[in-house]
Input
Amino acid sequence: MNEKVRPAPVVTICGVAGYNRGDDAIALAMVEGLRARLPALDARVAMLTLGAIPAAPGVTPFLAARGKPAGLLALVRAIAAADLVILGGGSIIQDKFGGGRVKGILGYAWLVARLARLFRRPLVTAPIGVDTVATDHARHVAGELLASACAIFVRDARSLANARAITAGTRAPAPELVCDPAFVLAGAPPAPDGPVILSPAFEDEYDDLVIDIFARTAAEAVERLGRDVVVVSMDSRDDARVARIVAAVPAAQRARVDASYPATLDAALTVLRGGSALIAMRLHAMILSYGTAPIACLSRTTKTDAFMEDYRVPGTTMERDTPAATAALLVAAVADWPQRAEHAAILATRRAALDRFFDTALGLLRDRGARG
Output
């Protein structure tokens, strides 16, 4: 008698792939980490824009545009079909774009958690960022959705403190500190002869300042380090402003400065892994380059402040000094790499911690499989 073949377990990953290349990296790193441990896995990956996640054997992307009936239906079906729902990663707990059960990333996360509960599907958070939320209502909504998780993982020490504050007095499991899932993709071999990579980030009020600092940084890197420079756009909405950086580089250095506009994660990884050094505002540019090249951070957010602190990355903040002094400091910070051994040790330790997330996910899948 032939034994009945069990279908592959289904994991539905509900993050924000498609928002930028960093969010794509989180989703695909989780797929890679899970399938390394369980090759017979059916991963269904939410994305915000078509094409952000390529379809592949065992990987089914779906457009989770919850503002449209078809997108909402796709999200419902993917969660209903799941043996495990993973919420995140990225800064899922925040109220920058809305702090209730409907609007913004918090509203999306609350909906995913509520659907998982409705269909009685186990839910864990990916190692997420947890910001300080501004209102009591947002804290209540965040606590409500986290209380429905079987396990809560966060990516940095500040997120751990914020998650503990939000879940205090609730039935939520104790948050656990691991690291961002994108570290699965970090640690590529160094490229000591490659260009210096610059990875800016933009918010309208700081655009002119960012462009000024990075144009000066590009010129300084050409002059001081004798390297070509590539300014990479990790978000398609930044493309025009990246072009403005290159145009603002003085003519004497501009011939050695180029721009890159990767439309996919693979293209972005090719650029980042080909660099001899990285100067960045983008968190995931730094994560994906960690252990491969010296890094300097120009920070404008709590998540990049936390990254510098947790991962021993030198850098400065946006308005601490003049643009010229800031550029000089950033280039000096990547002129050599005294933290190389320390970064390798940190990367190994954090990846070992990340195993707890994957082990928990697989344990929940096995428990559900055992129950039939």
Remarks:
- Residues 340-370 form the longest helix (31 residues).
